[in-house]
Amino acid sequence: MNAIPQLPLPADNPLMARAAAEIRRQGWCRLPDALPPELAQSLLLRAVKLRSTSFRRAGVGRHGDELINDFVRRDKIHWLDGRSPEQAAWLQWAEQSRAQLNRELFLGLFSFESHFAHYPVGGFYRKHLDAFKGEANRKLSVVLYLNPGWTTHDGGELVLYSPDIGAEEVARVTPLFGTLVMFLSEEFPHEVLPAHRDRYSIAGWFRINASHPERSDPPR
């Protein structure tokens, strides 16, 4: 395996500047080839290696209210903790991006959480928002796709809908290797269409600090 690259990004990364401009204009962005290919490939290999031992069924809800619901979603997840070199490099990228997005957009992003997601054949996630009821701490959603050679025939597209009442489709993203999507978590309903082959990604969220005197706000 190639060495995992460290990411000595400049204080103002042109990629994040572009992302910030698009988020400012329309609330979301799509960036092809967002990470060094060696890092993206290493993340894919790690996800595939973990598939049979460390992934768990994804539920609906949060903390004690989480339930498995096959009608809503059929994917498996593995939370990232930075203990492997490629996870550490990914989280370093996220931290550098968080700092620049705060400078560009004044979003007050405080922390980041993310997990691998595996959608098996037939896996999907019906339309939903990433912000939980009563916990509006997820501010900006991030999805990195890890699927070489993916085509429109393979399904599994991410569909973003308008925040308006009509909720018209505003984007359909093919989950092609290296593509990264960001969108405002509380504004854009979205869904993952059924996949016709194994589909891998990283889903993450930049969060604000929603702590108050009666309750701290850990990442999860």
Major sheet: 7 strands, antiparallel
Q: Give the helix/strand class.
A: alpha+beta
Taken as a percent bin, the fraction of beta residues is 25-35%
Please write the string of helix (H) and strand (E) elements: HEHEEHEEEEEEEE
Percent helix: 10-25%
Oligomer: single chain
What's the overall geometry? Answer: globular
Strand tally is: 11
Gyration radius, to the nearest Å? 17 Å
DSSP helical segment count: 3
Distance between the termini: 31 Å
Strand order of the largest sheet: 1-9-6-11-4-3-2
- Which spans of ≥5 residues are poorly predicted at pLDDT below 50? 1-6
Mean pLDDT: 87
Give an overview of the whole structure.
- With 220 residues, the protein is of the alpha+beta class.
- The chain has three helices and eleven strands; from the N terminus they run αβαββαββββββββ.
- Helix 2 (37-54) crosses helix 3 (85-105).
- It starts with 13 loop residues before the first helix and ends in a 13-residue tail after the last strand.
Briefly summarize what is shown.
This protein has 220 residues and is of the alpha+beta class. The chain is built from three helices and eleven strands, in the order H-E-H-E-E-H-E-E-E-E-E-E-E-E.
